[in-house]
Amino acid sequence: MKNHFNFRRFGQLFKKHSVENFKQYALSTGVLIGSMTLVMGFIAYLSGSPIVSQQQAIFFILFLLGSGFIFTSSIFSNLGNKNQAVAALSLPASHFEKYLVGWLYSFLIFSVVFTASFYVVITLIVNLDEWHSQEKEILNVFSAEQEVYGAYIIYAFLHAVAIWGAIFFTKTQFIKTAFVFLVLAGLLTTLNFQVLEAIFQQDLHVATPFTNVGFQVDKEYYSLELPEQQQRLIVLVPIVLALLFWATAYARIREKQL
Amino acid sequence: MVHVHNMSFGYSKKYLLFENLNLSLTRGHIYGLLGKNGAGKSTLLKNMIGLAFPQAGTCQINGQPAAKRLPSVLEDLYFLPEEIYVPALTAEQFVKHTAGFYPQFQQAELHRYLREFEVPWGAILDRLSFGQQKKFMIAFGLATNTGLFVMDEPTNGLDIPSKVQFRKIMASALTEERCMIISTHQVRDLDSLIDTVVVLHDRKIVLNQGLDQVAERLTFTTHSTTDGLDVLYAENSVRGQQVILPNTDGRYSRVDLELLFNALISNKSSVLQHLNQPEYEKSF
């Protein structure tokens, strides 16, 4: 067991990773805050009104998924550089501990830092001006009404894909992972559409993977989907896929050769 | 300590770099791994320490498969690659956050080695010259006191005084509990340092013998002419003919590693045959 996980050793590894990457992570956080301020501030300035919570939710989701994917793609960049990979792989810690440090930084810590940064930026923008006495509102990510927190589940899936790519590819991990992801997503959508059309033996209007099928018969439009009480099960799709990609990424780190 | 058993490895399945390779290395020795450029020295080291996986056969360290890279194995192993990586930390910070992974690490020893190498303690590592970085990592590796210390071309990038210092420090750091492996193509850098020579050539280990045994069997000398001599191998030099002869009178000569290496890779098998022939004790 000690060869797989040891709290003292994991603590040491976490500290070592933090100290060695502190500057880079601090700079990345600065860039993230700067980008969000620039984009959201510019939109608010152009529209002459504080960004409403629906817009804030869109920005929150897009920035979370985009910046998270980029950050995670680089979390194991040391394994793509031969000199750094020797140092990383020969360090006396288990593969699981090494993987867990990268996972924690790119998923848990990133999610917390991102959410905090988002609130700093949106609070700043909303309170920067009186906005001609228009109503000011700040998005509550965790409100049950808007369910913006669902973005964290989608992020879990994208994170799993990105961390797999970060370990699988040795160079330009972000571009290669994004390319493979887009190609596979395109293939899945096309194949799903073609297969369902073959099953239904008619033209379909819509066929989204894992969700619904829409088609028309004699001017009547039909939408085939799970019963309402089971629709929430769809949330399991990204979670199961995330678990699969996380496990594949871990297996890949164990098999890494130089 | 290190056991390579019937190992085959290649970067492609069509061309194998090693085939059924066997090698055993024990504690208490400094091994010199010699081979031409491209012979596969670095690849052999990577297989030995689990950074590359054999296609067939096994590589074990202390009875554990190296490919598993278990922490219990890694904490008794330090590998210094040819191209090193140092983080943007001071030596002090690096040691503070890395030494804890090695249970036998001795800070006092590190300071001594750094003083001898003239590497500053407070410097930021990635701002040091390549030679200074390398000396720091050699000193750190030695101070870890791991049972297995593997170095790939450690003298590349070192100036001449540093190479002399390197030999001195290495010799002083060898204990009965340690096995050190130094891979190089700069054969002269290993003079007066190693006690066992391992030569990798044509996908095989062609020699794995102590220098004492080599000196017992062979005589290394220089002659103006080789006429009338039972020459196993000869090379022209400015001083005459450098030759390898059978050691018939039992006198020990200093093993000329470069001449021995050239003889072994020249594909003239007489030196190898002589080294490998069984020795019979005189009964009268």
Question: Could you explain how this protein is built, in words?
Answer:
- With 258 residues, chain A is mainly alpha-helical.
- Chain A folds into 2 domains: 7-170 and 245-254, no CATH class; 172-225, no CATH class.
- Chain A has 7 helices and 3 strands; from the N terminus they run ααααααβββα.
- Chain A has a 3-stranded antiparallel beta sheet, covered by helices on one side.
- In chain A, helix 4 (95-127) packs across helix 5.
- The model of chain A has no long low-confidence stretch (mean pLDDT 91).
- By secondary structure, chain B is α/β, with parallel strands linked by helices.
- Chain B has 2 domains: 29-35 and 70-201, Rossmann fold (3-Layer(aba) Sandwich); 210-276, no CATH class.
- Chain B has 9 helices and 13 strands.
- Chain B has helices at residues 41-49, 71-74, 91-98, 107-117, 130-143, 160-173, 211-217, 257-265, 270-276, and strands spanning 2-9, 18-25, 29-35, 56-61, 64-65, 77-80, 148-152, 179-184, 196-201, 204-210, 218-223, 233-237, 240-246.
- In chain B, strands 6-7-8-3-9-10 form a 6-stranded mixed beta sheet, sandwiched between helices.
- Chain B is globular.
- The two termini of chain B are 39 Å apart.
- Chain A binds chain B through residues 2-3, 6, 9, 12, 15-16, 19-20, 23, 81-84, 86-87, 89-95, 255, 257-258, and chain B through 46, 49, 51-53, 69-72, 74-75, 77-79, 81, 83-85, 87-89, 93, 97-98, 100-102.
